[in-house]
Amino acid sequence: MEVAYAPELTICGIEELPAHSARKVTHVLSIIDPDRAELDAFASYGDHVRTTLRFHDIIAAIPGQIMPAPDHVEDILKFGEAFLARADRAASSHVLVHCHMGVSRSTAAMMSLMAQANPEESAEALFLRLAKIRPQAWPNSRMIAFADEQLGRSGELTAALRRHYGRQITMQPELSDWMTRLGRQAEVDMAQHSA
Question: So what's the pLDDT on residue 6?
């Protein structure tokens, strides 16, 4: 079954934003660090709805940084609710979600939106779709845990995330070292317990 959220879904990093300016993006979810200056890439985009959230890409407390919190995921799901309830649902749409690199916060946000829009679809199928949209996807586990709870998925998203991490490390072994250096050892450990 084809997972329905929008006719077109894009996940990217900040440096990739200019390349998408001519792709008729209608809805943008920006997730950036709190101290990041406002992005000027969207000046070249056509009319679109945009929501900006500011928090760091961490899974454990670091002094001076803002961890992803339940409120952030609630805001992501509010963005999704507004998209799903829009008056022009029959019109073509293109949802773009980005963070700094297009790897962690944005992929967790897109997974949350896809799970919200497709409550009957298995988490496993959604993660497979996510990997097709963004092959380097390594969703922030803290954000996925909040989405799991808020969407009433009873741990299904987190269990599927473990398997996703396992697949990602198998296909891209360098991710294990990269995530460990970034303080994400707990996620690498999740991959090892994905069976």
Answer: 52
pLDDT of residue 1: 31
Structure token pair of residue 73: 């995921």
How far, in Å, are 43, 78, 101, 166, 183 from residue 58 at the CA level? 29, 22, 14, 20, 8
Q: What is the DSSP letter of 178?
A: H
CATH for the stretch 8-192: 3.90.190.10
Helix, strand or coil, per DSSP, at residue 2: coil
What does the chain come to in residues? 195
Q: What is the pLDDT of residues 168-191, one digit of tens each?
A: 999 999 888 989 998 999 999 998
Q: Assign 129 to helix, strand or coil.
A: helix
Q: In terms of C-beta density within 10 A (0-12 exposed, 13-18 middle, 19 or more buried), how is residue 46 classed?
A: exposed
Neighbours of 135 (CB within 10 A): 10
**In the chain, where the domains are located:** 8-192
Is 61's pLDDT higher than 50? Answer: yes
Q: Say if residues 168 and 134 touch (Cβ distance below 8 Å).
A: no
For the entire predicted model, the pTM comes to 0.94
